[in-house]
Amino acid sequence: MLPSRKLEELRVVVHRHLQANDIYSQLRSFVTDFVKEKDTSGLTSEDELLQAVQEKGVVDELLKSLREEGTGTSVAFGPSFGSGVLPLKLPAFEDADDSSRRGRSHSDLPKSGGVYLHIRILSGSAFGIDGDEDPHSQCTLHMAFKGQRCSSRPVTYEAEPQFDDSFLVTLRESKESGSPLLHIQEKIEVVVVRTEKSGETSLVGTQKIDWRKVLSSGFLSLAVELLGSANAGGAALSAGVLNLRLQLLPSAKRFILPEIEVGRTAAQERASEGQIERKFFAFAKSWWKEYLSLRPSHAQRIVKIFGAAEDGSLRPVFSFLADVRPGRYLESPRHALRFVSVLPLDSDETFGEGRSDIWHSLHTVLAKGKATVEEKGILLCSLLHSFGLDAYCVMGSCTADSGANHGVVWCVSLTPGMEWGAGEGVVLWDPLGGGRYDNLNASVRDIPLNTVGCIFNKNNFLANIQASDAIGHVRFDIGNPRHWKAMGSAMVQPVAESLTPSSGPIPLLPSTHNVFQIEQAVEDTLRALVVEHRRHLGLYTLWDESLGFILSSALSAYETERIVGVTVGNADFQHSVKRAVPEGNTFKGFPVQFVHRDPARMMGALKASTVAQDILATRGDGVSFGLRVKAFAYAESAISVWIMLAVKYRPVVDC
Fold this sequence. Notes:
The chain contains 16 helices and 24 strands. The chain is an alpha+beta fold. Helix 7 packs antiparallel against helix 9 and helix 13 packs antiparallel against helix 14.
């Protein structure tokens, strides 16, 4: 703390600055206008006044002017308190209608005829530091609003991250009708993600911002508290603070509304939402009692009506579904299945242990680049719906490697006009393993899904009330009240729309991976690791470039098979191998697929495999190895990396 003498000197400097720049009179004018705008039936508290001063950017501009005076730079500090002073340094930008990344400038606005919101990220503070930080870790801020997504430049992760970015988002296009901006209920979703040097990501915090306070003045400064993931049913803890400035562009008076009207509208919306939620909660409670009364075994079935959201609140599970626009980055429902299956499983997800049981929004899932079991099912169902399928999330159970059952969320699509009760037109989609099962009667034994407790989408929620919930006995004739107990669209849809107001689908972003560079880099490192491993075994390693090249066709065929479900190109590969391996020689190959790019982890997987270990320790005459890495990029920078390690040699028979 400063000594009292220094504090007094500082007060004198500030006082002189305020007098010299006529800021005292500006502050008095601001306070007078603020009090006039308030409801005359009540008194203005000191806290309300201080909050208004902060939101108008008064404090920020005052501090800025003091700093610039110290450097000998004059600064204009007019009655607007900062209106129009925001620099526009735009990073990559993405919207739902145009997937190309682009920036915009102030000069574009008058010609466009639209209404925009300029968002400036000034700084971060109070971010959690545990004392054992990776100095190379970075954090990135992601935003989503009205079918638009944008991301900041990565900055070093520290207690006060040095964010300094601006985004320009569209509130209303010029071609749209002049609907009041105040009626746009969608909030700005903010997600901050931390990325380690290894590429591993973790969620720092999230928040939803009601931007409409800016409509009362055209300019708004605010401190946004990020919420870390909460445990189910518990309150979320603070994960940091973001300091933001919002500005309405163009700065036209016709968009400005009285502050009391903005506040009243928001309060009315909250009241309406609360009424809808209370009505649904009462209905769900009664519905649940009826469901349990039908059969005692229903209490053991996996039927979950509510899930814990990022802020710890409980929301109906169907409200987590959202409209997603794949754009040109996913070509078909099968490509969507492959995309979701190669998204890494969230590191917090360990079956039966340490699960937070939090259901994140789809924007958060895409921002963090990985998903829990439930989030994979929600994302896949949303994508299938975008491709026009009548898709539902399926809550049920699978058998883990340990033999214990664990809950999963799969998807089912139902083809119109088919006999669903007989298994016709019913397709099950596995978002974890990437399997697709469209002939339930013939393939039920091969389906790694044990039970079905309930299904749901944004239009309905149905619980399985059949005598058995085992997959081999479940009939998907969802219109049959003897098999399914439905909540009905009249009850489900209003709640889903109230909790997730949206003015546009969430757009997927293109991959940022250069697959050729990834393939070469991983292959070079893996070769060095194989050579080192064999050196420790006292063995020399010789590489056969032509053998490695031949392996490419097999890896491409494996990835294609995962998408279309049909084996392709196997005969060609077998033919190539026979020609490449001399008579009397033996060929061995081991293919394996990963969803990351870490060669060290890949080498660890090879050492853990009995087949790969046998190849690595090959001895014989004329031993030569082939190695090929093949990477396949998907939307949102999801990636499937295949490697195949192969060897050809002439066995030496001991006499």
